[in-house]
Amino acid sequence: MNAPARNLPLPDSRPASSGCLNAPVLREHGQREVFCGLTGIVWMHRKIQDAFFLIVGSRTCAHLMQSAAGVMIFAEPRFGTAIIDERDLAGLADANAELDKVVERLLKRRSDIKLLFLVGSCPSEVIKLDLSRAAQRLSRRYMPDVRVLNYSGSGIETTFTQGEDACLASLVPELPEADANGPPSLLVVGALSDIVEDQFRRLFTDLGIASVDFLPPRKSSMLPAIGPRTRCLLAQPFLSDTARALDERGGLYLPAVFPLGAEGTTLWLKAAAEAFDVPPDRFNRVIAQPEARARRALEHHHEILASKRLFLFPDSQLEPCLARFLSRELDMNIVEVGTPYLNRTHLAGELALLPEGTRLSEGQDVDRQLDRCREEKPDLVVCGLGLANPLEAEGMTTKWSIETVFTPIQGYEQAGDLAEIFARPLRRRQRLEV
Amino acid sequence: MQLTLWTYEGPPHVGAMRIATAMKGLHYVLHAPQGDTYADLLFTMIERRDHRPPVTYTTFQARDLGGDTAELFKTAARDAFERFQPEVMLVGSSCTAELIQDDPGGLARALALPVPVVPLELPSYQRKENWGASETFYQLVRALLASRVPPAGVDRALRPDGRKPCCNLLGPTALGFRHRDDVVEISRLLTGLGIDINVVAPLNSRPTDLLRIPDADFNVVMYPETAATTAQWLKRAFGQPMTTVVPIGVNATREFIAEVVALAGLAPDLAGSDDVGRLPWYSRSIDSTYLTGKRVFVFGDATHAIAAARMAEEELGFKVVGLGTYAREFARDVRDAAKRYDVKPLISDDYLEVEEQIAEAQPELVLGTQMERHIAKRLGIPCAVISAPVHVQDYPARYSPQMGFEGANVLFDTFVHPLMMGLEEHLIGMFRDDFEFHAEASPSHLGHSAATPQPSTETPQDVPAKRTDPVMVSEIIWKPDAEAELKKIPFFVRGKARRNTEKFACDRGLEVITVETLYDAKAHFGR
Ligand code: SF4
Ligand code: SF4
Q: Are residues A291 and A429 in the same domain?
């Protein structure tokens, strides 16, 4: 196996090339085939266990949620839609009163709800229904039992994972003030599955970083504190607004590569370790075993993925990180990396590690992108659910990108799982004889 | 503003997509924000279509709102026309675009495209998916045929002697529940009677096919939800008669045959076909004795719910204990049907209300949509899916129509499969505490978990307050021997026995339930 490419490049030994750091980006302004930010509710409501997400929107919004949540029908889900109807459109005062009524009915029924998000949609924004005022009004009424916040998940403002960003950003002003003279603390930002969170917590403890919090917390009563002594480490690449809000609260942003793959996880942990002055030998000792384990897990998938050509359609903003992982740790060849939005600051570390000459595209014109994809004939296409089957029918092998958002993929122990997500469709193709 | 947790129908533009996606040579330009593109996955994932729906979304963003969203629409429409070269274009708005009032119809007209453009006005804040499908089909057919409507007073030309009668099949769409197979089955049935099929629409047809609709002697309205409006217009405009019976079930299929034979002007004796499939014999065979009087709750779109209820009562000997639909447009039909079974019709698209009614009716089988499947799973009641909305597993690879005699065969299996087999049920009754036939066992052909009540995936607090028993009932105490006796009752009726007994005790002001009370209640309720 070609070991050199997969050697661990610690930040100090980073290759001289700046990768794609300054590479031009193809900016597209056509039809976007990406979910709106409402979809983030599908995982956010599982994460914050005492929160309810009330979309103020249309039947379309409700139908989107249902289609995206798919088979996950719960007894009574902790999300729902207040569907705006004709009567609400007739006069705004009316709509506010109607919303209050819906909230009252909801909270009466669900005494377990401690945090209520009013989630704005395209219709609520176009009719200028002021949900921040509504949230203040309702908070006054229901505090201290229920805190009411608002954010926008609308398709005219947000794509897919930006919904999580908007949700977390709305939580930031609610965070308690950290003791300005206390010891420094670490805040890991971005929804991770519980199992990943627990693994990271153990690693930070082993590194000697004593105070670690996660945003979002599992319960709204466990909101972490923030202040000038808080170091913020982003676990997801799509958190522009949240990072800005944390900055306003004095939090210190730690630039890092995202924790996907063995290398990514090491670099990510390293950013925290350096901020907390963890001695290098302690760092190396702590990560040695899990990192080696992650690399072993990746080996299972190297052969099938290596030198295969990969085309990523824009979906979750994870695309540049995935491309970096798949090119550097599994030797895939990247044809195009699409992303709905490219935050050059947060992704600087990722872009630097992408092979030079990788085509980056931001935004979308789906038909033209499909043309490019067909022309390139990649071995594997990562795309949304609307495109996957049609491309398969054209003979391409696809992986639906939503899986990288709904599955635990971060950290050492999940590195193999992440590779497997991309190896599976290729293996399946090989195996099928019909 | 209405609080909605799960919806039975999407917005009306999804209905329009079901027409556009069903057809060929059509393209739909939809003024909508990016998130609305989720609708593509209904077709590509759930129905496993191998093509993207022929839909271009303008995907306007907030920053476009101040500027020119109208221009954006025109560009999208022009580009879509050039790229896809449709024979006919549909244009319209989703809920958000409806609010910004760009008038896609007018904008598209201004483009002066060389093909017909049909503007769709689908009020998103009043109407829903099925209505949207029906309206789209109607607008399309009308737009293409309006110029060919004969002047008033001109009678339909009689079918020349010697030409075989022919008809159109109207209503099947993309994302329809078993529409693909129903078309095959009904075509076979009609051609077997000597009636030719002229046009099937919208499924797999082209706009040019729609032009031939008036050539047929009559229209078969397969699904009133999507085709009744169009067929009524065709009747008014072209004097084309239409069918009124939906051939789901043996009896309904017989009536349907009689109806089409009359419409086609064929000899009535043709209608007395002997080959009516296996259902009648299967229902008579003795293993089916155990089906007698099984309590069944039926919910779905009007066509499938009404048909399933009729089959359940007449053809399987069940007892309908609930009948309802989420389709308000067809409430009257469901109300009429409910009268026949002496049940209160449930007209509601509120998932929680449906759940409540099912729990209250204590059925032994639920026939419903994917939503009822979840409800039934939570309540531990067997369930079969008989109507849209459905999920990916309800688009089976095998041939499984709902219509015609083969459809009746399929439905017999569908209704019976979730239940315990006859002898099995008796054995459980006899050997109550047997280690294999213990009461928690599920039907042996369904593996282990199928009929066991599923604990909710949510935390216990998520169970809404109003689902707990009334205070009165909760005060009742079961004596240990009564509780033990209750355990000997097969699990699939135990819940009902418990509730009946408690209600019986409640009504009589009894605070303690003894073995006596249990059997008194049993005698009182008759089972
Ligand atoms: S992935 Fe398949 S099973 Fe899951 S929600 Fe989508 S269509 Fe349904
Ligand atoms: S794009 Fe807008 S209207 Fe469509 S589902 Fe998302 S929020 Fe609702």
A: yes
Domain boundary among A105, A132, A158: A158
* Distance in angstroms (rounded) separating the CA atoms of residues A232 and A239: 12
Q: Pick from A343, A338, A383, A381: which is nearest to A363 by CA?
A: A338
pLDDT at B464 over 70: no
CA distance A300 to B39: 37
Q: Clarify whether residues A29 and A50 are in a common domain.
A: no
Distances (CA, A) of B498 to B469, B484, B503, B516: 12, 12, 9, 13
Across chain B, mean pLDDT equals 88
Q: Is residue A147 in a domain? A: yes
pTM reported for the whole predicted model: 0.89
Residue A177 lies in a domain: no
Q: Does A77 touch chain B (CB under 8 A)?
A: yes
d(Cα B278, Cα B409) in Å, to the nearest integer?
A: 6
Q: Which domain holds residue A69?
A: 37-158
Tell me whether B267 touches chain A (CB under 8 Å).
no
Secondary structure (3-state) at A107: helix
* Domain CATH for A409: 3.40.50.1980
Same structural domain for residues A29 and A124? no
For B18-103, list the strands marked E by DSSP.
26-31, 55-57, 88-93
- Cβ contacts of A98 within 8 Å, gap of 6 or more: A82, A87, A88, B1
Residues A29 and A53 placed together within one structural domain of the fold: no
B413 given a catalytic annotation: no
The residue type at A146:
V
Closest by CA position to A180, among listed A126, A228, A217: A228
For the CA of A68, the nearest atom of ligand 1: 5
Query: Closest-lying ligand to the alpha carbon of A67?
Result: 1
A118 and A29 co-located in one domain: no
A371-385, B286-300, B433-447: lowest mean pLDDT where?
B433-447
Can you tell me which atom of ligand 1 is nearest the CA of A70? 5
- C-alpha angle A298-A304-A306 in degrees, rounded to nearest 5: 75
Helices assigned H by DSSP within A249-317: 261-275, 280-305
CA A88 to ligand 2 center in whole angstroms? 18
The Cα A413–Cα A416 span in angstroms is: 7
Q: Are residues A65 and A29 in the same domain?
A: no
User: Per residue in B100-116, pLDDT tens?
Assistant: 989 999 999 999 999 99
Ligand 2 neighbours, Cβ below 6 Å, are: A 36, 38, 57-58, 60-61, 64, 121-123, 154-155; B 33, 35-36, 95-96
Whether A29 and A135 map to the same domain: the answer is no
ipTM: 0.91
Residues A139 and A29 in one domain: no
**pLDDT exceeds cutoff 90 at A239:** yes
Q: What number of C-beta contacts closer than 8 Å exist between A and B?
A: 215
In the prediction, which pLDDT does B230 show? 98
pLDDT at B158: 73
Query: For the purposes of burial, counting CB atoms within 10 Å of the CB of A5, is it exposed (0-12), middle (13-18) or buried (19 or more)?
Result: middle
- Final residue belonging to a domain, choices A130, A158, A186: A158
CA torsion B70→B71→B77→B79, rounded to 10°? -160
Structure tokens at B222: 């397969």
Q: What is the dihedral of CA A290, A291, A295, A296, to 10 degrees?
A: -30
| Inside any domain, residue A204 | no
| Cis peptide bond N-terminal to A408, omega within 30 | no
What is the number of domains present in chain A? Answer: 2
CA atoms within 13 A on the CB side of A267: 26
Q: Is residue A218 part of a domain?
A: no
The whole-angstrom separation of Cα B110 and Cα B117 is 11
Instruction: Please check whether residue B9 is in contact with residue B326, taking contact to mean a CB–CB distance below 8 angstroms.
Output: yes
Give me the count of residues in chain A.
434
The 10s digit of each residue's pLDDT in B221-234 is 999 999 999 999 99
